[in-house]
Amino acid sequence: MNIWEELPKPFLILAPMEGVTDVIFRQVVAKAGRPDLFFTEFTNVSSYASEKGRANALERLEIAPTDKPIIAQIWGKEPEHFKETVKALKNLGFSGVDINFGCPDKNVNKAGGGAAMIKTPELALECLREATKNTELPVSVKTRLGWAKVEEYKEWLPLLLNEHPKALTVHLRTKKEMSKVPAHYEIIPEIVKLRNEISLETKLIINGDIKNKEHALKLHQEYKEVDGFMIGRGVFANPYCFTDHTATREDLMKLLYLHLDLYEKYSKKHQVSYEPLKHFYKIYINNFPGASDLRAKLMETHSIKEAREVLRKV
Ligand SMILES: Cc1cc2nc3c(=O)[nH]c(=O)nc-3n(C[C@H](O)[C@H](O)[C@H](O)COP(=O)(O)O)c2cc1C
Catalytic residue at 103? Predict the structure, then answer.
């Protein structure tokens, strides 16, 4: 069983985004038009491996039927904790495990995880091997070009490819570049060459600044050997980004109501607060006369009930 072999070419993935692509938002995107594959937000393996953190980790790993197929993304720096976590993932309904070696968050990097792993390649490979050894699920990696310099990819990516992960997603920037410079599409041919030379069976996924399906297909015309494209922030501009559909105001309002309904459903069993939900309003209330006024009113609300009141008056 290897989900990566079953996907169309090119395939499209919704990028893992902490605080965004949770079980609620994934269902909203599925309603608009699903990608070929979902990823969860990243979950810390040391959190899963600890008695105190496990409940929270499992909450983050909750999936809905419309999420499938879905990959669980994990991060950490303790090989033993990778082992323990991957052993549990198959029974939770996942089709694969992805390891995050690219997150630039200060706290994650201070803990030695995410992009900081690029600076400790021996440890990174040990974690990857430990994960691969302890699960039947296909294991993949998501990373950046390097920590400080773009050229680091010439050493870093071959190290990963030599482990023959089932898929490799490259966010075409360094950790230092964050998301502040355009993605380095010009390096794609070099990365394809490395993949072809070292591990032809590894699916290659490109990530960074891809807006929508049309954009991904255009990139595929240019870079035919890339297997898949991952879209992150493009979904903020257009939740229908995985389709050819042009969203109407009515479509977006329907998605907003679905998001509110799902939020209410999950808030009964998850510990969720209202404030983060407000970040999503700009996705749905955008680009029509009066949108910014309506958004401003919604930003002043303190509960779903108040938000529904505001929306009722529109
Ligand atoms: C709010 C936010 C949260 C993110 N969280 C994660 C994460 O949990 N795991 C991960 O691998 N990448 C994470 N990323 C990075 C994205 O997956 C993606 O690599 C990045 O946004 C570049 O793609 P884009 O230009 O299509 O947005 C996050 C990005 C954003 C904007």
Answer: yes
